[in-house]
Design goal:
Elements (H helix, E strand, L loop, with lengths): L2 E8 L3 H19 L3 E5 L3 H8 L5 H8 L3 E6 L14 H11 L4 E7 L12 H4 L3 E7 L11 E4 L5 E4 L6 H16 L4 E6 L5 H14 L6 E6 H10 L6 E4 L1 H14 L9 E3 L5 E3 L18 H13 L4 H16 L2 E2 L9 E2 L2 H10 L4
Parallel strand pairs: 1-2, 1-3, 3-12, 5-10, 8-9, 8-10, 13-14
Antiparallel strand pairs: 4-5, 4-11, 6-7, 11-12
Helix pairs in contact: 1-10, 1-12, 2-4, 6-7, 8-9, 10-11, 11-12
The structure holds 1,4-dihydronicotinamide adenine dinucleotide, 2-OXO-4-methylpentanoic acid (COI) and magnesium ion.
Magnesium ion binds next to helix 9.
Length: about 350
């Protein structure tokens, strides 16, 4: 039976980069027999403008009914004056929580052709292959109470709450150990256990889960040090597991090790292995509408979709190899340009990846 993919282009550069991923999916279907069908729905600012809500019920229902979801990005200055409850980003968070997508896998892999595109010295990043496992449906982005209230003095107070249950920590740690077993068997749990009780519990549970994986070496690091170590010596890491906000921040930093935030894909999985796939970057309003955004993070997210949700590992490998060939040809969007390479736009890059697909 053909697999159902829901396409959620979103805002800003979202529609531009997703168009390239759709071209790729069409080619995989028509040329390589990947059995899939696509449908589209609104999310984010585009959905708010059309319906007054960033996650219309019909979008959530369509997402629930699909095997996999491909999302571009949401948000932008146009919607910043709106209350947080109806901002585009709330649509994305609603999809994550509504589908129970608690496990966010963010691989930071340096294509060797891009060593010169990184802002770090080549020897620091060459051969980089790390995986950030970010908890995605809990923590401070979802904790209650939240909001802004007014104290008796008349002063306003902003509140967000960092909260995790043991079971939430346990299941994300288990994902990290399971993937580490398929990799180099090292997990570094990142927390702020010296200050935050919630992450003291995180550390305790990470140790408890680790006892079931005697072949995996578990280490712990405070998040401030982890940020520094990621830039100083990123290859010391194999799998990093951390909470929602720390993972959000550390993965943007890790993206630059690979040359650009335009290179980092992600998979967000639930307990049933249904997945949403998206680049880790945002809607890039500063370059939206110019046809210059890098579509490779979205294209590599399609590869993750093929591997994790569509059971098409061969097609996934085909996409990753095609990206490598295009980089070998010296084609680069502006964010990964380096001396001796040729600047192309979003569509030219997408076309080149499709053209580079091989049997
Ligand atoms: N998953 C999502 O939908 C996310 C949405 N956002 C939203 O996106 C909007 C912009 O957020 P920012 O903080 O500016 O982060 P951003 O990731 O959109 O952009 C940061 C910088 O990276 C560049 N960039 C991002 N993606 C790129 C690509 N594919 N190719 C080339 N350059 C790229 C942008 O031009 C910008 O200079 C906000 O409304 C934010 O809330 C932010 C992060 C994730
Ligand atoms: C709405 C934000 C939490 C999105 C984001 O920055 C991310 O998931 O990386
Ligand atoms: Mg982010």
């Amino acid at each position: 039976m053909s697999k159902k993919i829901l396409i959620l282009a979103g805002d800003g550069i979202g529609p531009e980069i997703v168009a390239e991923a759709v071209k790729l999916l069409v080619a995989l279907r028509d040329r390589f027999g990947v059995d899939l069908e696509m449908d589209e729905a609104l999310v984010g600012g585009a959905a708010y403008d059309a319906t007054g809500h960033p996650l219309p019920p019909e979008t959530l229902a369509a997402a629930r009914a699909s095997d996999a979801i491909l999302l571009g990005a949401v948000g932008g200055p146009k919607w910043e004056p709106l209350p947080i409850a109806v901002r585009p980003e709330k649509g994305l968070l609603g999809l994550r929580s509504g589908l129970g997508l608690f496990a966010n896998l963010r691989p930071a892999i340096l294509y060797p052709q891009l060593a010169a595109a990184s802002t770090l010295k080549a020897e620091v990043v060459e051969g980089l292959d790390i995986l950030i496992v970010r908890e995605l449906t809990g923590g401070i982005y979802f904790g209650e109470p939240r909001g802004v209230d007014t104290l008796p003095s008349g002063e306003r107070r902003g509140i967000n709450t960092l909260v995790y249950t043991e079971s939430e920590i346990r299941r994300i740690c288990r994902v990290a150990f399971e993937v580490a077993m398929q990799r180099n068997r090292r997990v570094c749990s990142v927390d702020k256990a010296n200050v935050l009780e919630c992450t003291e519990l995180w550390r305790e549970i990470a140790i408890e889960v680790g006892r079931d994986y005697p072949d995996v070496t578990l280490s712990h690091m405070y998040v401030d040090n982890a940020a520094m170590q990621l830039v100083r010596a990123p290859k010391q890491f194999d799998v990093l597991v951390t909470d929602n906000m720390f993972g959000d921040i550390l993965s943007d930093a890790a993206a630059m090790l690979t040359g650009s935030i335009g290179m980092l894909p992600s998979a967000s999985l639930n307990a049933e292995r249904q997945g949403m796939y998206e680049p880790i970057h945002g809607s890039a309003p500063d370059i939206a509408g110019q046809g210059v955004a890098n579509p490779l993070a979205t294209i590599l997210s399609v590869a993750m979709m093929l591997r994790y949700s569509l059971d098409e590992p061969e097609a996934a490998g085909r996409v990753e190899a095609a990206v490598g060939r295009v980089l070998d040809l010296g084609l680069r969007t502006g964010d990964i340009l380096s001396p001796g390479t040729r600047r192309v736009g979003t569509a030219e890059m997408g076309d080149a990846v499709v053209a580079a697909l091989r049997d």
